[in-house]
Amino acid sequence: MVKTASLDKPLQVEIFPHRLLQPSTAERLLNEIDKVEGVTRMLLQGQNLPLKVICGPGTGEDVDHPERRVIQVGGQAFELTVMVGRIRVEVDREEAKENIRKACERALPFPFEFREGYFLKRKPTLVDYAKYGFKSRTDERINLEDPRLFGMVDPRVKPEGKVCVLKD
User: Fold this and answer.
1) 51 and 127 in a common domain
2) Do 144 and 90 belong to one domain?
3) Which domain holds residue 74?
4) Max CA-CA distance within the chain?
5) Model-level pTM?
6) CA geometry: angle at 10 spanning 4 and 16, to 5°?
7) Contact 136, 145 (CB under 8 A)
8) What is the pLDDT of residues 16-70, one digit of tens each?
């Protein structure tokens, strides 16, 4: 039986590597974390890798950044649109925290910080309501009754391809 994270007191950890992760390192780390039993959701943060030049003399031209590529995590492919600098993970059991630390030690060849705290929202935010309304609209991918999606929306971007659900 798979337990879900308790909404009144979830366990959350933040992995803060001392370097920005290359796509291959990020893929290896995310797959190690995905193997840990009890992980309910992850959030990747880092420097944006834009598709087009947004200002300057080359405005509107395509950016062919070598770090923006498709990676495989948990058997599902998705495009990595950031240089990963921080990973926030929510777990549903205490022993999963230590397993995540061990996964980081296996996957990262350099030092990292490992913090425990509250990093991910547990209730729908104003941005969630502004983008999707009080109930999920006709878009079946966005369901505000699913607690895994709370606070996972960036108000400045379109939602297509930004939230990747690996497993139910």
Assistant:
1) no
2) no
3) 11-119
4) 56
5) 0.75
6) 115
7) yes
8) 999 999 999 999 999 999 999 999 888 898 988 888 888 888 888 998 888 889 9
